[in-house]
Amino acid sequence: MRIVLSGIFLFGGLFFFMVGTIGLLRFPDMLTRAHAAAKCDTLGAMLSLLGLIVFSGFNTISLKLMLILLFIWITNPTGTHLIAKARYDEEVNNYEDI
């Protein structure tokens, strides 16, 4: 049962990684690409790490994976937001000069 559940989580993570990659290739501008990358990578990493936690059981490895999960959950959306905000501010300032 544990192997099946971890496989479901791992394939779910793989699915969201693939959707994020397709979004990076198909979306027209930087802001929508950043949105696709942030959402899909965060969810894909969370599902993949959750699958690894379920597979390893409750031990020190799963505690370390939970800390990595928390770190990704906080830093990935924050970093993407800062990059997108810098790009948006750059575009607004360029249009004011015209």
Give the total of beta strands: 0
Query: How would you classify the helix and strand content by structural class?
Result: mainly alpha
How far the N terminus sits from the C terminus, by CA atoms, comes to: 63 Å
**What is the ordering of alpha helices and beta strands?**
HHH
Number of helices, counting only DSSP H or I runs of 4 residues or more? 3
Total discrete domains? 1
Work out the strand percent.
under 5%
Oligomer: single chain
Helix content: over 70%
Averaged pLDDT, please?
89
Low-pLDDT runs of 5+ residues are none
Query: Describe the biggest sheet?
Result: none
Our Rg estimate from Cα atoms comes to 17 Å
Overall 3D geometry?
elongated
Protein name: Na(+)/H(+) antiporter subunit G
Membrane topology: Multi-pass membrane protein
Main location: membrane
Subcellular location: Membrane
Structure description:
This protein is mainly alpha-helical. It has one domain (1-97). Helix content is 92%, strand content 0%. The protein has helices at residues 2-26, 30-56, 60-97. Helix 1 (2-26) runs antiparallel to helix 2 (30-56). The longest helix has 38 residues, at 60-97. The protein is elongated. It starts with a helix and ends with a helix.
Could you name the key traits of this structure?
single chain; 98 residues; mainly alpha; 3 helices; 92% helix; 0% strand; elongated; sodium:proton antiporter activity; PhaG_MnhG_YufB; transmembrane helix; transmembrane; Na(+)/H(+) antiporter subunit G
